[in-house]
Sequence to fold (479 residues):
Amino acid sequence: KVYNNYFYDEPAFNTHDGGYIPLEEPNTPAMPLNIPAALVPDKETQTDMYYTVTAQPGETQLLPGTKTKTWGYNASLLGKTIIFKNGKTIHLHLENKLPELTTFHWHGLNIPGPIEDGGCHAPVYPDSSRDVTFKINQPAATCWLHAHPCPSTASQVWHGLATAVVIQDDIESQLPFPRNYGVDDIPIILQDRRFHADNQWDYREDYDPDGVQGPTPMINGTVNPYFDVTTQRLRLRILDGSNRREWRLHFSDNLEFTQIASDDGILPEPVKFTRLMTTCAERHEIIVDFSNYQAGDEVVLYSDETPIVHFRIHEFATDNTKLPEHLVDIPDPKVDADLPVKHVVMSGMDEEVMMDDKKFDMQRIDYKMPLGKCQLWDITNTNDMDGGMIHPYHMHGTAFRIISRNGHAPYPNERGLKDVVSVNPGEHVILKVWYDVAGIFMYHCHIIEHEDGGMMAQLQVIDPQNPDAKYELMDHHTL
Ligand code: C2O
Ligand code: CU
Ligand code: CU
Fold:
């Protein structure tokens, strides 16, 4: 079965209150798609890996002429790809060379909060550093690192502080997937920007409390990219790293593709599509098969009618690999009968965005939940203004399963582990939520300006072995 549906609420797609900015095809020369190098560890043992991650300012040649002032991790823009193996203990030296405070949030990693997780309570001040250690304990997935200081997450991500984090494990490595990084396994980080005078970005000028957009697609930090295809099958690790844009992806010739993984791991079975909609912070790993093309052909990836990546086909060896019908088993804990359904309500637009009728408060714990127990969470988007918007709901420090959307089955590519779910206007989505690590974790809309605007709350996951654990919570004054 091949799905030809985007699975989303069409009237809500990026059209709210006239603020939508359509993408435009860049008229600049084609550039090779930036493939970020893998971050090299400082040191490595059988069990432990040591890395330095530096948030730094730089300049990037995005358009002909003047370079654009950008930020990145160990790079001028975005960052190196960080590859972690399940079971390893990771030691990170986090450095801040930026003129303002930042944090290093490991989006999608099941690690303790609030310090290791790197949300707003773990600042790294300019010209200083912080060391954190955590163990990777989760299946292979495409996650990401991004800045998360409140309330300037949006402007820092816009400046470029976002990069792919790939988790590998022994199950994924046995599956017949392409995994030669940079050759047949590449990140596709979807972002959009507006270029102002002298090729510069201007976050303030472009500010929109419902999320900043720009007309120019920027993929892996490349404007108007092409990629040289040298294998029949290509694995794309798609990450919507834009502040607020949803992307409606499809290829030329309606080329079919197969989704193999969602946010936090491989899907139970592969799902075939010709169209894929992604909201902010979601990840979709897909395999594209170019067997019907030959050297000299070009296959184009579009969002709506705008070309965003040109795949230039070269000679490749025939590859008859078939994917198994069943890929992996997905954990499915039993809901704890003692825990009531937890309700979360996302409401408002513009400056009025709220979570459960409140604005985020760094010092307020909004909810407590026991470690290791599984609970149903019911997430509602009230659709109460101007036709509403899709709110991509995200939780730190865990992955969840999607049980239903307004009482119906989730979309076919939502049967695996997720940490972001798009909630359509007027919809309520039921999740199974459980935590394997304790601490303080944020949950919020991942339209980043909504998050900065207060559509965010935090929960404490309580370890019964250590019920009185104390956490130092920052507030806006101590920042
Ligand atoms: Cu991508 Cu609060 O996270
Ligand atoms: Cu996160
Ligand atoms: Cu939102």
In short: The mean pLDDT is 95. The longest helix spans residues 153-159.
